[in-house]
Amino acid sequence: MRAMLLTGFGDVSNFELGELPRPEPGPGQVLVRVAAASVNPVDVKIRQLAPAFAPKLPAVLGLDFAGLVEEVGEGVTAYAPGDEVYGCAGGVGQRQGALAELMPADVRFLARKPRALDFRSAAALPLVAITAWDALHGKARVQAGEHALIQGGAGGVGHVAVQLAKAAGLAVAATVSSPAKADIARSLGADEIINYREEEPAAYVQRLTGGAGFDLAFDTVGGASLEASIAAVRPRGRVVSTNTRSTHDLSLLHAKALSLHVVFMLLPLVSAVGEPDYAPILREVAALADAGRLTPLLDERAFSLARAAEAHALVESGKAVGKVVVDVV
Ligand SMILES: NC(=O)c1ccc[n+]([C@@H]2O[C@H](COP(=O)([O-])OP(=O)(O)OC[C@H]3O[C@@H](n4cnc5c(N)ncnc54)[C@H](OP(=O)(O)O)[C@@H]3O)[C@@H](O)[C@H]2O)c1
Prior knowledge:
Layout: E1 2-6, E2 15-19, E3 29-39, H1 41-49, E4 64-72, E5 84-88, E6 102-106, E7 110-112, H2 119-124, H3 126-139, E8 147-151, H4 156-167, E9 171-176, H5 179-187, E10 192-195, H6 201-209, E11 214-219, H7 224-232, E12 233-241, H8 251-255, E13 259-262, H9 267-270, H10 279-290, E14 303-304, H11 308-317, E15 324-327
Helix pairs in contact: 3-4, 6-7
The protein binds NADP nicotinamide-adenine-dinucleotide phosphate.
């Protein structure tokens, strides 16, 4: 099979199109003929920084995929060849990734593709939707009627979080950096827009909550944005973060008796047994997509498997608008 191989950690020149033997699905796995894969910031971090959970070289990266079941492994009864699936199942640790024509994937980490979405759109969703779902439902346990602040409301995780929060009945304020991104967040359902470059937390907390603070903040950015999130929630509120690899003074967290939650969605893929599966979340996400309540935003540029390095470079540049997808076949 054709595969995009990473031959060294560092810049995108380390990608090389090559051939690998056809993989076999192991017990509890299906072999997926990958139609599309999306590139997330974590794929870029793995390629650049070789974190502890990076695969051994030469490696096939790519967490997110959508495609067709080609073959089922031992013990798999829920899927059959020809089924359309999507998921987030490899490109880390010992697991082969999605930048290849065929990918063995644990059924724990995939579900049936939303019927309403084509393969490209379906491949854009798994990692960001699992992250946003875990943040809002798993960690913050949101309730209809609550007022949420979503930092990075037009980003990969943020634009899905806005839609999931609206589907759960929340009022949503989203931070963005430009009028164009404000339009995106508004079109996805955000009720209120904050340009984080122009308005400080104290000002928007006053403008949007009368100074009381948001019930919860979902920070998809980290750093100063995490501090803004802590400042923006009400006493006893919740803050959920995707990025806490940083040093912060937690005095305000203490003074307001806040809870701080961290999402690290890769854990089930990189740790031993006992971590929850993605499949139940992916089924919920597919149902919302099929109901027309969740639509991924895709960057308009298209990349073939041979041009996956350019897709990585685009994500790395921070200039993508929406998710970046690679058409694998
Ligand atoms: N821990 C986990 O499980 C997990 C899961 C998924 C993602 N992540 C991490 O979460 C981060 C976001 O991922 P993503 O896929 O959403 O990336 P993305 O598509 O690049 O989006 C990042 C967003 O952050 C916004 N932003 C940047 N600086 C900001 C600030 N100071 N205040 C508010 N918004 C700001 C950007 O908006 P503008 O372009 O308008 O500035 C952009 O929309 C990445 O670091 C990723 O690695 C972690």
